[in-house]
Specification:
The chain is of the alpha/beta class. Helix content is 37%, strand content 22%. It is built from eleven helices and twelve strands. It has helices spanning 15-30, 46-52, 60-65, 82-96, 161-177, 195-207, 220-229, 241-254, 295-307, 311-325, 341-350; strands at residues 2-11, 35-41, 69-74, 101-107, 125-131, 135-144, 152-158, 182-187, 214-219, 236-239, 262-266, 274-278. The strands form two sheets. The chain has a ten-stranded mixed β-sheet, sandwiched between helices. Strands 6-7 form a two-stranded antiparallel ribbon. Strand 11 and strand 12 form a beta hairpin. The radius of gyration is 20 Å and the shape is globular. The protein binds adenosine-5'-triphosphate (ATP). The site of adenosine-5'-triphosphate has 17 residues, from loops.
Amino acid sequence: MKTYRIATIPGDGIGKEVVPAGREVMQALAEGSDFRFQFEDFDWGGDYYRRHGRMMPDDGLDALRGQDAILFGSAGDPGIPDHITLWGLRLKICQGLDQYANVRPTRILPGIDAPLKRCAPGDLDWVIVRENSEGEYAGVGGRVHQGLPIEAATDVSMMTRAGVERILRFAFRLAGSRPRRHLTVVTKSNAQRHAMVMWDEIAAEIAREFPDVSWDKELVDAATARMVNRPSSLDTIVATNLHADILSDLAAALAGSLGIAPTGNIDPERRGPSMFEPIHGSAFDIMGKGLANPIGTFWSVAMLLEHLGETAAAARLMRAIEAVTADPALHTRDLGGQATTAEVTQAVRERLPAPQTAGAPAA
Ligand code: ATP
């Protein structure tokens, strides 16, 4: 029997509710299967910061390196500045383990009342690939003369040829694995005339390695309009750290709710564990009330299972998720319903098909 070592990091806010729910569903999936999970829980986040003055231990990455995958909740605390919670935990893990490809599938699940009136469910089926290791979030910059009239600050967007080549190669490969075999490369190379022009040039170079994948280019501002007006013209999308961060929140909203959307922070070379998480944040307005939608976490678990090669288990979970979203009585408040986190979790558990019945892949 295979045993997968899974690190769980609930973090802050509703992360403390949705990660235990995800773990519960993973345990249910393992029952009767030929694999099991060995969980290790890490209490890093805002409370840890108040006790220790940092979001996670200095040697925390070492504790993660031996794991097969990480299930993450959220980082964000009303009492701690956002740049500390983000850089001290989530980005420290993503960059420390060089999980350079952030993958965000989006589609309209059955039963979800998505806001685009001219969009049939099948018209919106995207995967956004976000560069996850450098760019606008490279952390390069500084502040001088703080508090003085001559104060100055910089955030340098750092793009390297190696970083751009590897994310574009990953995106072309992923696009080639999907039925449409189409990639849209999003930049802002009209206004940002150095690094973004380099992206365009490298995209044309890498495209030659993938003759079976069609591709086009779009400026990020035009990409937002295209997502709304012509969703079916898009399939796989690749963009920089900042651009894809924004586009994927738009994608999640267009698919019905932030509470549904999943993501994986992937190390394609598998030098260490990859990390899976719902894309929503800590949502302090609903924390502790049992109202958080756990579907984004469950879909992230499906991605985790696919990454581990457990595609049949991922398909079982996606079937259960879709059976639950199809029933409005099982919608949480963000979807206009009344169901609680516990009720949705229980419903997904109950609808898991038996282990031998596989179906479609998760992303
Ligand atoms: P952060 O600063 O950590 O990103 P935030 O509160 O600014 O957190 P989100 O957590 O992404 O941003 O939440 C935005 C809104 O969406 C909130 O009103 C929140 O209640 C709602 N929301 C987000 N995730 C969920 C969820 N899983 N279930 C229900 N509502 C959600």
